[in-house]
Amino acid sequence: MADWVPQFLGFAFILVYVFVRYFADEVLANQDWYVYRKMNSKTAYQKNVVKVVLEKYNPCFKPLSPKGKAKYIYRTIELTNSFDFIGKGGQKINTEIKVLIASAIAQTTFGWKIFDLDKFYEIHIYPDIFRLSPRLPKMQGASHPDGILVFSWKHILFGFADDSDGINVALHEIAHALKINYLDASSILPNKKYSDWNEHATRVKLDMQIQEETFFKKRAKTNMHEFFAICLENFFERPNEFLNHHPKLFAATCLLLNQNPINTKSDYKT
């Protein structure tokens, strides 16, 4: 074998490796758009139904480009099929319930390539506030590490009816689930991003304990789990105010979620 053959093969291997890695990243980055376009005609009705619900209830859907809307619809459909939706206290499960809750998950994970909550498998829906046990207070929502999300449908609707008050029980509980699913264990997310977020969040939380905080609800200083959930509620519902009050924490949240809700002209890209 000629002396140059091993060197050539080594060089060729490197080229192939780099090409495959780059191509794979590009495919992953665009897989939502690709899969959405390839959906067969049998799902056309489902796409239209989901679009109607999103346009009716979810304000973050409306500013998206056609490509962004396709991605959002595809992810919402996938998420509605990822959970068992169970009515409690006489609540009937319908398409609107499934789509609106799934869309809140799609909203929080819109900037990530992986968007499911694979440690969660059931979503329980009550018509109004509920008690999970006689010893617990009445709740609007709850998230359990054992894989169950629980909501009051009435308060989910309240949350989406006003998208500027920083109060949305769907986003709040999904933020808890997000933290359980990706941030509290072996994470698929870069540790540096969460470490940076946690550093800025800890400073803001400490300030809340020392002096009166005028932006986040007082409940945010209870613990870092509550702080994270309330942080995400305000990130999506009051992004401009968030940026003005806590610019470093807002920037860290943008990097963590890989999206910027202020950037409505470019599908919330950072």
Per-chain topology:
Elements (H helix, E strand, L loop, with lengths): L3 H35 L5 H14 L8 H15 L3 E4 L7 H14 L13 E5 L14 E4 L3 E5 H9 L7 H15 L7 H20 L13 H14 L1 H7 L1 H11 L13
Parallel strand pairs: 1-2, 2-4
Antiparallel strand pairs: 3-4
Helix pairs in contact: 1-3, 2-3, 2-4, 3-4, 4-6, 6-8, 7-10, 8-9, 9-10
What does this structure look like?
Helix 4 packs across helix 6 and helix 7 packs antiparallel against helix 10 (247-257). This protein has 270 residues and is α/β, with parallel strands linked by helices. The longest helix is centred in the first third of the chain and has 35 residues, at 4-38. The chain has one domain: Collagenase (Catalytic Domain) (3-Layer(aba) Sandwich). It has a four-stranded mixed beta sheet with strand order 1-2-4-3. The N and C termini lie far apart (52 Å). The protein has helices spanning 4-38, 44-57, 66-80, 95-108, 153-161, 169-183, 191-210, 224-237, 239-245, 247-257, and strands at residues 84-87, 122-126, 141-144, 148-152. The protein is built from ten helices and four strands. Residues 16-29 have low confidence and may be disordered. 57% of the residues lie in helices and 7% in strands. A hairpin with a 3-residue loop joins strand 3 (141-144) and strand 4 (148-152).
- Helical percentage: 55-70%
**CATH architecture name:** 3-Layer(aba) Sandwich
Provide the low-confidence segments as ranges.
Answer: 16-29
Mean pLDDT, to the nearest integer, reads: 85
CATH superfamily: Collagenase (Catalytic Domain)
Radius of gyration: 21 Å
Straight-line distance between termini? 52 Å
How are helices and strands ordered from N to C? HHHEHEEEHHHHHH
**Percent of residues in beta strands?**
5-15%
| DSSP, total strands | 4
Number of spatially distinct domains: 1
- The neighbouring-strand order within the major sheet is 1-2-4-3
What is the 3D shape? globular
CATH class placement: Alpha Beta
- Put simply, the count of helices is 10
